[in-house]
Task: structure prediction
Amino acid sequence: MERIYFNNCLTSKPAPEVIEITTEYMKNNYYFPEDFNTMGTKAFFKLEKAKKTIADSMAANSKEIHFTSGGTAANNLAIKGYLTANSKKGTHIICSVIDYPDILTNAAFFENSGFDVTYLQADNEGFIDLDQLKNSIREDTILFMTTFGNHTVGTIQPLKEIRKILDRSEHKIVMHVDACEAYARIPINVNELGIDFMSISAHKIHGPQGIGALYQRKGIVLGQVQHGVNRMDNLQTGGLNIASIAGFAKAVELAFNNLEENIAKIRKLSDYLLNKIESTIPDTLLNGPRGDKRVPHNINISFDYIEGEAIMMMMDISGVSISTGSACASKGLKPNYVLMALGRNHEQSHSSMKFTLSRYNTIEEIDYTVEKLAEVVKELRSRSPLSN
Result:
């Protein structure tokens, strides 16, 4: 059997159609999108078409889309750009203790630069405290940041409720959303949800690595974060990776042409995986909510008495790629900050495993994975002093 891949939170396998169009662009459509020459003009219109494909997927206008080198670049462009351009309106920021590192490190940067940051707590399923949010809003609050689909436990934050709370303020509070784990996994309409900025990434949805995008609502000003030659985008100066943008647009097209079908398939696979693990392996704990309150591709489970790193390495030997629940947090032995915020103890955090699925996974792969996982867990527990 070929390697089984359940690590789609980190990166995903590029779709064959994405590889084909990206390669084609690199070979024959590498021209810079500029005016006054035939090939440059064609490249420009193809770039605009790609931008519209991505804008349409979230009910945005193509003029509100900025291509970036990935989700992290988009997050930095939005957060740093907005705060530097609008600090005269206020210097108070709100985020949560379970947000993605891009958000938390930016919050810490601005906190050290004189801004005031309120960090919201979360409940044991990973939902932020909305009462605390209500009580945290001040006259100088200008930015709320959140991770739409939590990167560790998959919790989907209730953006409509959050927007209503923010709108009770007598002044505008901008909402920035990191949607890299939610985009193309749940429907997102930026207007219905009241999103002002949103970051997305191609390599999470079977697109190329090294390309992403920022949605910027019309009328909201961003300061210049990156300086250089203004060729195609006033915010993202310099050249653009046209081949990767074409691949990104193709990945979006593939995902959104059958969005409901893709979501249903992935949800069915993850439900099957969870049920099979819970019915096969004793002493397990699901981290995060059940059902449609979590993004469909994410299953995070703690296996009592053993270390997640050991599970990961032994499963890798068996040809299965999964990650510890502390992925994106640290390569060290620190407990995962999200799981600790949810009330898990050090042992539960260290024993957590994250399975993130895609539409390319199969029931047969899950059956094999759980069979090997049960063997690995049994062996590791037989050696663990905690299980005796």
Remarks:
- The mean pLDDT is 93.
- The radius of gyration is 22 Å.
